[in-house]
Specification:
Layout: E1 4-9, H1 13-24, H2 26-33, E2 37-43, E3 60-61, H3 65-68, E4 73-78, H4 86-95, E5 99-102, H5 105-122, E6 126-127, H6 138-143, E7 151-157, H7 160-172, H8 176-185, H9 194-197, H10 200-214, E8 224-225, H11 233-241, E9 244-254, E10 260-270, E11 282-289, E12 293-300, H12 304-323, E13 353-363, H13 368-378, E14 383-388, E15 397-404, E16 407-408, H14 409-419, E17 425-434
Parallel strand pairs: 1-2, 1-4, 2-3, 4-5, 5-6, 8-10, 10-17
Antiparallel strand pairs: 7-9, 7-11, 9-10, 11-12, 13-15, 13-16, 13-17, 14-15
């Protein structure tokens, strides 16, 4: 059979990885597909820099139209990232009747619905395994082998930068700024790490995961998102004292009231849960289906090779359909029929019920504990346990840490606002949510 022709938009680090994989494993791919997958054109603004891979200079171009206008190219890979011009390029490829493979989680989180609708209208595929978890094959598993399940929950450690920082803070006792600088020097964090450390990257991935698991449209702006910049060594120490580890967790859960929780924030996880042992730059996703039960995926969530592996896997999946003579797309992008994708109402964060670790910084004087406990009780918040550091002379500020039983977040926030108005509170009080049951 004639080789399948592919156009690549974006010849950066991941693009170079895809080129190298297709070069080095061409025979393996041919044996699995029945024909070769040939890069016919690579478009990038910079076509002179050395990417460390062997490529025929004649296929390089700065004019992306050469890909859209080439009728032999049946699959377009988008690897430039961001919102624009990526969105325009993807929609143009679809309009030209070409299948699309992308690793762009930000694009899909904000504009996925428009892209999927365009692909449906043209009868082409949009595949995006590399958008979540790098080389971890979680999306294909959700749409494939686990497709018979109704999913109850998603818990994910989805950002290697944040996980590396929290791991180093936990294991080495280093402070946030020090570890962030180290992560940047090692290439684990971008020069501008805002999307990572503020939780935005994780929220992008959660939007994609939740859409696939629950068959719903996710309003990205409605995902409650917090990063890790406020986590300190003292939070990590107290969490360990109570038997927990802090991770930046992506959470998607169907509540009993039919609403969907989608949130990203630092979370205390019991030390005996497998997610607590996911360290360094590794990612993990724990899903629970009604029949399969809990399943956990683990691996490198970023990097040239793992991401190139996922992109190529999507290429092979589409190519197999082409070689089999499939005239239309194999499946809808979300795994649900387009007509059955629904709008599940999202639960406001104020209504979410969980346990909390509350940290107060208060002057060491009589009446402090009584004042805090009184406010918590007035708001219906029950204290499970408490730790106060050794007393100091002179009324110095000391941390007081309280573990609560389950409570609505709205009540917790009202209580903290009132406590923070007391004269004996020396800095803004903090809350960290706890997930004891990750099922």
């Amino acid at each position: 059979m004639t080789d399948i022709k592919v156009g690549l938009i974006g010849f950066g680090n991941i693009g170079a990885g895809v080129v190298r994989l297709l070069n080095e494993n061409s025979e393996t791919i041919r044996r699995k597909v029945g024909c070769g997958i040939l890069l016919k054109r690579i478009a990038d603004l910079d076509i002179t820099s050395d990417r460390g891979v062997s490529v025929d200079p004649s296929i390089l171009t700065t004019d992306v139209n050469e890909i859209f206008n080439d009728t032999e190219i049946t699959i377009v890979i988008e690897l430039i990232g961001g919102y624009e011009p990526a969105k325009t390029f993807v929609l143009r490829a679809i309009a030209a009747g070409k299948h699309v493979v992308t690793a762009n989680k930000a694009l899909l989180a904000l504009h996925g619905e428009e892209i999927y609708a365009a692909a449906s209208a043209k009868g082409v595929e949009v595949q995006f395994e590399a958008a979540v978890g790098g080389g971890i094959p979680v999306l294909s598993a959700i749409k494939g082998n686990m497709a018979g399940n109704r999913f109850n929950s998603i818990f994910g450690i989805l950002n290697g930068t944040c996980n590396y920082i929290l791991t180093q803070m936990t294991q080495e006792g280093a402070d946030f700024d020090e570890v962030l600088q180290s992560a940047q020097q090692l290439g684990y964090a971008e020069p501008d790490p805002t999307f990572d450390i503020e939780g935005t990257d994780t929220a992008h991935k959660l939007a994609v995961l939740a859409s696939l698991c629950f068959g719903t449209r996710i309003d990205f702006g409605a995902i409650h998102t917090e990063g890790i910049t406020g986590i300190s060594g003292i939070d990590i120490s107290f969490a360990a004292e109570f038997g927990y580890r802090i991770k930046l967790l992506a959470i998607g859960k169907l509540s009993d009231d039919g609403k969907l929780e989608v949130r990203v924030h630092p979370t205390m996880i019991p030390l005996n849960n497998p997610l607590a042992d996911v360290n360094g730059v590794f990612n993990a996703i724990r899903l629970t289906g009604d029949f399969v039960g809990p399943v956990m995926f683990y691996g490198r969530g970023a990097g040239q090779n793992p991401t190139a592996s996922a992109v190529t896997g999507d290429l092979i999946a589409i190519s197999r359909s082409i070689t089999a003579g499939v005239k239309n797309r194999r499946a809808a992008p979300l795994g649900f029929l387009d007509s059955t994708v629904v709008n599940i109402p999202l639960k406001p964060v104020e209504e979410i019920v969980t346990s909390f670790m509350l940290r107060f910084t208060a002057l060491d004087q009589p009446g402090v504990l009584a004042g805090i406990a009184g406010v918590l009780g007035k708001n219906g918040i029950s204290i499970k346990s408490m730790v106060q550091t050794a007393r100091h002379n002179g009324g110095q500020a000391v941390p007081i840490v309280i573990m609560t039983h389950e409570a609505a977040e709205g009540a917790i926030r009202l209580a903290l606002e009132e406590v923070d108005s007391f004269e004996f509170i020396s800095e803004k009080s903090r809350l960290i949510r706890i997930e004891d049951n990750l099922e």
